[in-house]
Amino acid sequence: MYEDMKKEIIKRYNERLKKYGHDPRTLGWFKGRQPIRFKVITQIGDLNNSSILDVGCGFGDLYDFLIKNYRGIEYVGYDINPNLIQTAKKTHPNVCFEVKDILQEKLKEKFDYVVSSGLFEFRFPDSTSFTRNMLRGMFESCKKGVAADFMSTYADFEEKNAFYANPEDIFRFCKTLSKRVSLRHDYMPFEFCIYIYKNDSINERNVFTDFDL
Questions:
Q1: Distance between CA 58 and CA 75 in Å, rounded?
Q2: In Å, how far are 62, 102, 104, 140, 146 from 107, measured between CA atoms?
């Protein structure tokens, strides 16, 4: 079942890539929402001098946002789609991008923060299990915390092929991973972001910084 899901994900993004090329629309970003999501994702903490793994990195656009707003960033981007990674490498020749599936390949390296934006966009027959397994895998690979965004069930309408997560369900599951979880549903009406912190990172705090978008 999971292999079928992977093939479908790759197919959908390849179709968008063929239609839009190197464009935010290929990744499902519309109406200038990408910088808003990046801003919220990166507000998990003080990311200066941090190592960051971007799961489902696409073209690596988050890297550009990070180096503009933070210093000392060590960035790595993973995606299961070879065509997206190929484009990311062309536009960021000195950045580490790899075709890798963290659910099938246990990571030897740990990162300060593991983040993902737009990873949970598509609806699948077992989206709940996929989401939980992915969040668990991301949490196992972080030293300080995980940040991920979702479309919310608190929406006026739902697109047929999109996955809308129940914020309470996501929060409840994340509490099984850590005692320190924060949910944000304040930045766009129909989306939310979850922060999951390592329990031993008691000195870590959220740093909400205003950026020019």
A1: 14
A2: 21, 7, 9, 9, 15
Six token digits for residue 212: 């020019």
Does 123 fall in a domain?
Answer: yes
Domain membership flag for residue 213: no
Residue 185 tokens read as: 């549903």
- What are the pLDDT tens digits along the chain (213 aa)? 578 878 888 988 898 889 988 887 888 766 668 899 999 999 999 999 999 999 999 999 999 999 999 999 999 999 999 999 999 999 999 999 999 999 998 888 999 999 999 999 888 778 899 999 999 999 999 999 999 999 999 988 878 878 999 999 999 999 999 999 999 999 998 999 999 999 765 444 444 444 444
Domain containing residue 84: CATH number = 3.40.50.150
Helix (H) or strand (E) run with residue 77 in it = strand 74-79
Q: 207 lies in a domain?
A: no
Q: At 156, phi and psi to the nearest 5?
A: -75, -25
Task: Provide the number of structural domains found in the chain.
Answer: 1
Distance CA 43, CA 47 (A): 8
Domain residue limits at 154: 2-197
Q: Is 108 helix (H, G, I), strand (E, B) or coil?
A: coil
- The one-letter amino acid at 178: S
